[in-house]
UniProtKB/TrEMBL annotation:
This is Toxin-antitoxin system HicB family antitoxin. It comes from the Bacteria. Residues 46-89 are annotated as: Disordered. InterPro entries: Ribbon_hlx_hlx (IPR010985). The lineage of its organism: Bacteria, Bacillati, Actinomycetota, Actinomycetes, Streptosporangiales. One of its GO terms (biological process) is regulation of DNA-templated transcription.
Amino acid sequence: MATQRKSILLRLDPAIHDALVRWAGDELRSTNAQIEFLLRKALAEAGRLPRNAGGIPRRGRPPKRRAAADPDSAEPPETAPANDQPPDT
C-alpha cells in the first residue's frame, strides 16, 4: 500500500528557486525531488531523519528486466554448425 505524499506550499526567494532549478537539472531531478533530497540529507546529517520515513519514489520508466526473467528478450538458443559434418571429438 503506497503512502500518500504530503503537499505543501513553499515560498522561496526567486534567486534561490532559480539556483535549485539549475541544480536539479544538473542532477537529472525535478525541482521537487531536489528539494526533498536536500531536506532528507539535512535531516539525516542532523540525526533527525525518522526511521519510518519512506523512500523517495522512483519516477520515470521502470528498468528493463533481465533476459532470464523475460523470455521474449532472451538470446536465441545456440544452433548446430551450418555444415552437415559432425563435430570433431
